[in-house]
Amino acid sequence: MKTAVYPGSFDPVTYGHIDIIERAAKLFDKVIVLVSMNPVKPADFSTSERVNFLERCVKPGNVVIDSHTGLFIDYFKEKNADVIVKGLRAMSDFEYEFQMALLNKDMCHTAETIFLSANAASMFLSSSAVKQIAMFGGDISAFVHHAILSDVTSKLKIK
Length: 159
Ligand code: PNS
What we know:
Elements: E1 3-8, H1 15-27, E2 30-35, H2 47-57, E3 63-67, H3 72-78, E4 83-88, H4 94-107, E5 112-117, H5 127-135, H6 149-156
Parallel strand pairs: 1-2, 1-4, 2-3, 4-5
4'-phosphopantetheine binds at residues 7-9, 36-38, 41, 71-73, 100, 103-104.
């Protein structure tokens, strides 16, 4: 039984994240999507909002949504997980993701990070860009699941 953990800010979850979650769910017995804290990127949505958004967009099956505020690798060890899943978009992601993969491996020698390439439509998609579009009243329906679209836009739109 192989358990994968997919950590991220998911602030908010986009179709790019959903694609990675659905593909990871086909590769592993269990996938934990973990809303984590990125100390250098304060979130616009609370942890419970981000968890709730994920729960509304992701088919349950073998996918579980959870959150954690501490060091990611402590959670990974506590769950006896096998693999860390990350999505890799354009080259700009590479150095940052590689650094995290190596540091996590340093702290837990059994922690293998597997990168899934973003699909073509999500290659340049990011939660930050989506938030900026929404703030200024742009249409984000191509990037954010319809189940959460109105909650995301109503919170972000500058009135
Ligand atoms: O979606 P993001 O912002 O790129 O995700 C980054 C995240 C949340 C996965 C990363 O910041 C993280 O793992 N945070 C938890 C704290 C931690 O363990 N930091 C050290 C990572 S080597």
